[in-house]
Fold:
Amino acid sequence: EADSLKVWSVASGTLAGTAAGLASNVTALAFSPDGRTMISGGHDEAVRVWDLPSGRARHVLAGHRAQLRRIAMAAGGGAVATGDHEGGIVVWDAGSGRSNARFDVGSKRAVEALELSADGRHLVATSQGQGRVWEVKTGRELRVLEHGMRIAGVVADYVTLGVDRPADVPLVEAVLRDNAAQHALFERTQLMGRGS
Structure:
């Protein structure tokens, strides 16, 4: 079945579900933390939200103008970010399929890595050796992180701050890795004045 995705259980080695009805090659894929939702994207520029294990498409979302490159889902499961080959990023509500925000890495450069914070409030995206951190709700760009080399992966996570800082001020740690040299750059970015 050329137009389907098959989901296998790693534990048992058995087929756990099939999602049929794809219109093009799949180039990006993500799963919800509970394993009940799968998000796919491909050459046709559409984002598909699948119900598992039924394999039915819950939503087919339009909003990109180039093939999909990356998909990230917040650990809470509510927000999904999708990035394309021309630098466009859309943040969606996974339940309703509604587009909540749009971002761009600039100069029609492909999104190479993409991550949402656990609560979906912050977005980290990379392209051509540069990482960007945004606040999703306001669309405000918080930081530009220069690495200088291709960035293969990003981790966005909240870290508990010391006792001398207010408990409600998060710290986002973006770990930027160059996959050829396995060199790591750690950039700690304090996000002050965030919207509630």
Notes: Residues 49 and 182 are 33 Å apart (CA to CA).
